[in-house]
Each structure stands twice: as C-alpha cells, then as structure tokens.
UniProtKB/TrEMBL annotation:
Assigned EC number: 2.8.1.-
Superkingdom, natural source: Bacteria
InterPro entries assigned: DsrC-like_C, DsrC-like_dom_sf, DsrC-like_N, DsrC/TusE
GO MF terms held by the record: sulfur carrier activity; transferase activity
Family designation: Belongs to the dsrC/tusE family.
NCBIfam families attached to this UniProt entry: dsrC_tusE_dsvC
GO cellular component: cytoplasm
Keywords: Cytoplasm, Transferase
Function recorded in the entry: Part of a sulfur-relay system.
Name of the featured protein: Sulfurtransferase
Annotated source species: Methylobacter tundripaludum
Main location: cytoplasm
Length: 110
C-alpha cells in the first residue's frame, strides 16, 4: 500500500516517514496507521495531536524521556508513562506517534 493524498502518491523515507510534513492530514495518518498495523483510537489521536503541537511549538522533536514527561505535564500522569504509551504504540511510542503525525523520524530513534 502506498500512502496517497487525493490518489497521488506521497514521498516517504525507507522507514515510512513523510518526506514533506505539510502533506499530512488525518486521512494520511489513518493510512500510515494501517501500514503499521495500528488501529487508531481516540487515545492514539490524543498523542498524535500532542506530538504535532509539541513540534510546532518547539521546532524540534523530544527524546523519549522528555516526550513522556511532556505528556504527563499536559495530559496527566496516567497518560504520561511508558506503560500507557507502549500499549498504544508497542514498537516505540515516540517513533510511531511521530510517524503517524507526519513528522520526521526522531533523531534518538533507531
């Protein structure tokens, strides 16, 4: 499956991150989630929109520890912890929330 916007293929990296973050919309996030076997829920969207806002505000991506602490500060301790985030994104909360948010791959992620 190729990620498309209005039936036009979008450029992605070899790991599936959008080349141009401006191409992102909720439909693109849904396609990326399907490609990564993630069924998006309201809880996923909360984290995806959080990381998009963080990136727009600070112009960089946090490392995993800062990401978790920022979520705890903004959304509460129940959501700002590794266990909760790994339930949503088992293969890496920061990496996959950024990918689905149309953001670059965080520099601290493999």
């Amino acid at each position: 499956m190729v990620v498309t916007n209005r039936d036009l293929p979008l450029e992605t990296t070899d790991q599936g991150f959008l080349i141009n973050p401006a191409d992102w919309d909720e439909n693109i996030a849904q396609q990326l989630a399907e490609l990564n076997n993630i069924a998006l829920t309201a809880e996923h969207w909360e984290i995806i929109l959080f990381v998009r806002h963080y990136y727009q505000q600070f112009k960089h991506l946090p490392n995993a520890r800062v990401f978790t602490k920022a979520i705890a500060k903004e959304l509460g301790e129940a959501k700002g912890n590794s266990r909760y985030l790994h339930k949503l994104f088992p293969d890496g909360p920061l990496k996959y929330s950024c990918k689905l948010a149309g953001l670059p791959k965080p520099p601290t992620c493999l």
